[in-house]
Amino acid sequence: MGSKTMVIKQQQCVVMQEQRRFLSHKRSVGAVLLASLSLFACASANTPEQQVQVKSVAAIAPQAQATDMRPALEPVRRWTSLPAVPTVARDSLVQAREAVNKKRWAELGRLVSAASADPVLGAYAQYWQLRRMLQDATQIIPRDQLRSFLANNQDEYLSNRLKSDWILAAARQSDFEQVNRLWPVVNPSSQVRCAYLHAQYVTGHKVLPEQIIDAFSAGQACWSALDQFYSSGVVSFVQVRDLMRDALESARTAEARRLAAIIFSAAQMRDYTALMADPRKWLNAQSSAQGQGKTELITLALSRLGRGDRQANAAYIENQWAKKLPKADMDWVWGQFGLVSALRVDPDAARWYRKAGSTPMTDYNHAWRVRAELRENNIDWKHVQAAVEKMGASQRAEPVWVYWHARALQAQGQQEQAKAEFESITNDLNFYGQLAIEELGRTPSLPPTPSPLSTAEMQDIRTHAGLLRAIELFKLGWRPEAVGEWAFALRGMNDRQLRAAAELARENQIYDRVVNTSMLTKQEVDFSQRFIAPFEGRVTAQARNIALDPAWVYGLIRQESRFITDARSGVGASGLMQLMPDTARHVAKRINMQNFTLNQVNDFEVNTILGTNYLNMVLQQLDGSQVLASAGYNAGPGRPINWRSRLGNPVEGAIFAETIPFTETRLYVKNVLSNATYYSMMFSGQPQSLKERLGTVAPK
After folding, report:
1. How wide is the angle at C-alpha 444 spanned by C-alphas 442 and 448, nearest 5°?
2. Residue 382, C-beta contacts closer than 8 angstroms, at least 6 positions apart
3. Where is the Transglycosylase SLT domain positioned along the sequence (predicted)?
């Protein structure tokens, strides 16, 4: 916050209906489940809109086996009470984890036997040792030990992880029959999916090119598979080219270069290096676009000109190259001009996008095409409508784009169609569902409270061995392991069971699991869980002490830390309100907090005092706008000041929020304001307007 360095984090907002659209492809159902149960909703970016590529995998079994390849759910293991844990065993387990963290492998080996006597978590020590053996390419795969673990281990989550680890090790050694024998696994990673597809192909099964393209992400198993499929002609030049373009579009230059090396010759790779360093200089030495590879190199070079003087470079392109390239390639070039302009919040983005024709773009770029139109000084709603309609069906169906399409129709007098589209997303309990309700003339209100959970339902969930293991891990502070165990245990649960699991988390004060577990329900929506307000009003008291809106503060904390008091981000932000060290020191000095030291920053009182005061400082600096202040708290106050200064006219808060050029900050602002509106409803018992909270943002 404040001075926090912006970094990429995988987007983990479970209820953000539009989050996956800043990715080039959809997530798989399994990946969404695990991602939805992770800690933080979003991530920072040090440059606008660096995206994380996460793609769905279709039916990754071969066509001849086009049945459901998911593993059947095993019967739930039950513990009527938590098994007694010998102190020596638990102490040995703790020492074993420390040995893993410090890569003291010999020490780990000495501790495994004693740690394994822990009847609750002892399997972790065995798993860590076996995983190390699998990851060490110099060791022979210990097949007998692996089979023994899989046969005897009581922790299904660790068994599933070990199968995934074994698949990757077997693929690395080209033991593809073993990969096939180990399949399927639950929620396989992209690397595991690639290894399986590679194994299927090598052992004579049919693999479709779309399957490997959808599964691909940068990593050893996927690189090996993609190399094989390209050299065998399964995957085409254009398909790998599109992966490369996606990587360049999101500034993943190392990945793009590795992809380029698949489709370009050694001589062409020298050209690739030259054009990336100085595209105009390289282009001046070229005379024509002959052949698939040369055409692509010229297209890439032209697209890179969008990062310079776009007006002059566009004239150069029109005079020298526009008639020498296929229209689809020129459309992509102009789309890149539009994207660069949009991410720099320049006023000419829509102009470039309008030159890009109807050639399909990535979902990411389609989204920015719409945002560029919304950012126009005088919005031409016909262009907004057209930009949305150029999207693919699945992207267009997302609430964010349904809403803006409906707004475009409404602005053009097509009231009935607009009303139908608004109505179609009113059950989406997020930013755009709330706004759609208001466009229909209603004020958003809370959903009905579901019937209470029974004693029997709670007793059933309290005996779930997987959840009890996860709780033990949370108590030890081993959050990565705990989150994985918890997520795995939720597989197959219905709404009542999910609500009961959320209540179990509440009983154990694991507040992030309360929220994230409850958000998985489909029909029974329990806002007392989804918008939990822990700490017995102390947050409200801190906010009111400095005249801050408590609902807004709660909405921000829910987004920042999910109420984890010792939460720590990848860039060093700490505590409930995720304060960076420099920010904490600065605020402590400003409010004259006596004897402050950084080791106090996770303390509830200190963190909330500093956090609410900093939020108030940002709010005052940004003229009382919760939209701007939320953006400033996340990205630093200077950024929303800059974005606001580039406006040509006042815009509604929703447009300003949607056109924020950092993925994380854009999602953050929309979620914080949506959260705040719901908390306000819960605190007041009355319907509340999100549009009023968003207000208007004027240039300054």
Report:
1. 115
2. 408, 412
3. 543-646
Among 612, 610, 640, residue whose Cα is nearest residue 625: 640
Phi, psi of 608 (to 5 degrees): -75, -35
Tell which phi-psi region holds residue 575, choosing left (phi > 0), alpha (psi between -120 and 50) or beta: left
The answer to whether the CB of 16 falls within 8 A of the CB of 400 is no
Rounded to whole angstroms, the Cα distance separating 469 from 122 reads 11
Q: Which helix (H) or strand (E) holds 145?
A: helix 143-152
Per residue in 458-481, pLDDT (tens digit) is 999 999 999 999 999 999 999 999
The span from the CA of 490 to the CA of 486, in Å, is 7
Distance CA 425, CA 421 (A): 7
In this structure, the dihedral spanned by the alpha carbons of residues 409, 413, 417 and 421, taken in order and rounded to 10 degrees, is: 40
Nearest alpha-carbon partner for 439 in 452, 425, 449, 453: 425
> Rounded to whole angstroms, how far apart are CA atoms 678 and 687?
9
103-110: Cβ within 8 A, 24+ apart: 105/132, 108/132
Interatomic CA distance for residues 438 and 421, integer angstroms: 13
Q: Which helix (H) or strand (E) holds 697?
A: strand 696-697
Residue 423: both structure tokens together: 């109505």
CA distances from 21 to 320, 355, 368, 390 (A): 35, 23, 10, 14
Taking CA atoms, 536 is separated from 404, 443, 540, in Å, by 39, 28, 9
**328 Cα distance to chain centroid:** 30
- Give the tens place of pLDDT for each residue, 24-46: 333 333 333 334 333 333 333 33
> Chain centroid to CA 380: how far?
32
Phi, psi of 566 (to 5 degrees): -105, 25
501-513 pLDDT, tens digit each: 999 999 999 999 9
Number of Cα atoms under 13 Å in the Cβ half of residue 107: 13
Taking phi over 0 as left and psi of -120 to 50 as alpha, with beta for the rest, 532 belongs to beta
Q: In angstroms, what CA-CA distances link 504 with 155, 462, 509, 512, 666?
A: 20, 7, 9, 12, 33
Is the alpha carbon torsion for 575, 580, 585, 586 positive or negative? negative
Contact 193, 207 (CB under 8 A): no
Give the pLDDT of residue 28.
34
d(CA 87, CA 110): 17
Per-residue tokens: 357 = 């024709």
CA distances from 420 to 9, 59, 414, 445, 446 (A): 36, 34, 10, 20, 22
Neighbours of 237 (CB within 10 A): 14
The CA distance from 403 to 382, in Å, is: 15
Cα three-residue angle 220-223-228, rounded to 5 degrees: 130
Could you tell me the pTM of the whole model? 0.88
